[in-house]
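Reviewer 2 asked us to include a model.

Predict the structure of this chain.
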Amino acid sequence: MSHAALSRRQWLASSSRWLAASSCLLATASQRRSAMADQAEEPDTAPTYSDAEAFDWQFGMKLETPVTFTRGLGTFAVPMDWPEQVVTIASRDVSGPITHLQMRDLQGGARQAVIGINRMRANQSLNVLLNLKIEKRNILAPTETDSLVIPQRVSRELRGYLGNSPMIDATHGKIRQLSRELDTEAADDTSGWQTVRRIYDRVREEVAYTEGPIRNASDALEDGKGDCEDMTSLFVALCRNADIPARMVWIPGHCYPEFYLEVLDGGPESGHWYPCQVAGTEQFGEMQEDRPILQKGDRFKIPEQRQVVRYVSEYFRCDRVGSRSPSVRFVSQQKHDEQ
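Predicted model (structure tokens):
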């Protein structure tokens, strides 16, 4: 039996041992906060950050089963640290016949909790709930952008943010045609920042925001309409055609892109990722957003799945005895103080 309790769209709409990983998070939280606060030496071309604000979130899995099953495996994504956020495990609620718990980082920008269950008897239940303190900062645009350029040499790590990804068909004919038009228009651009801004403006001109099913970036361009995923995918595809590394950023209920530039003659050490809001209120090079970052990227290889995926969804499978199925509910919600 294989069961994915929440699809990516449902989520948007609404490896070390576990103990060692969580202890590390708790032990180094103050160091990470200190690093976030220390921006004195950052150049004017770098993004800067507002003061942090703390939010309480809960992520996890609840399971009840009317039948006995064996070889159960459940996974769910857990927010991780980024320059604009620090994640600390405040507490855990773990109960039931759990064989092992692990934290697993996926290449590209996502972290999973992995739950193993050797055997679970009929009418048993289990909970794995993580209560997280997430300190989030808004990203402020750089004050100097004239010297920001498209990287001349792309590292192996950054090459993962070029080319095609699931639903980001950067090599599609229509996307390449628009990219050539933009390249001609950008002939007089004096910075990579101007080039990316040109792509940003064109996507917002060409595609009207409309809710709809998940589609390829080329479909949004051809139809002239799409939602936040479609518009973000198109922006990423056009950036990649211009040799600009770009990726998707996933938050509860929304997604937006980031693009990568370096300082002229500064090399990889001068490079930074910059966000923008393609669908919704205009934000370019900045991001005013309190919701936590769930994952960054759009090309993930998950051990339990054969195909590369653009989003790391929740997952559960088991070998059941009988015709009925376990009931699995994945939790991802902000916790508010009780009045």
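The chain has two domains: 2-138+297-335, 143-284. Confidence is low (pLDDT under 50) at residues 1-7, 10-27. We have added this to the supplementary material.
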